[in-house]
């Protein structure tokens, strides 16, 4: 499965980058395939291991913030490996074919 999620600390002021960095650090240290962009971090693996990483990322932010907002989107698809890469490669092939 792939889960794209964002963790936003609330009640800590306008700048939240250092809090978000704590969450991303948890994801990167998990060893699971992952990718971070301006809006979401995506992580790929089996259900239990991905959800554990998301939980720990939320917990590390919640340890420093009085409230945390979490947005998640999941793609649960059996038999797919390296979806973080292959989904983008497929899209790029279609874009190249349309040029």
Structure explained in plain terms:
The chain is an alpha+beta fold. The protein is 44% helix and 25% strand. It has a 4-stranded antiparallel sheet with strand order 2-3-1-4, with helices on one face. It has one domain: Alpha-Beta Plaits.
In short:
This protein has 99 residues and is an alpha+beta fold. 44% of the residues lie in helices and 25% in strands.
SSE blueprint and pairings:
Blueprint: E1 2-10, H1 17-29, E2 34-36, E3 41-44, H2 47-62, E4 67-75, H3 83-97
Antiparallel strand pairs: 1-3, 1-4, 2-3
Helix pairs in contact: 1-2
DSSP helical segment count: 3
Order of helices and strands: EHEEHEH
- How many independent structural domains? 1
Task: Report the end-to-end length measured between terminal Cα atoms.
Answer: 31 Å
Shape summary:
globular
Strand order of the biggest β-sheet: 2-3-1-4
Residue fraction in strands: 25-35%
Question: Key terms for this structure?
Answer:
99 residues; four-stranded antiparallel β-sheet; 4 strands; alpha+beta; 44% helix; Alpha-Beta Plaits
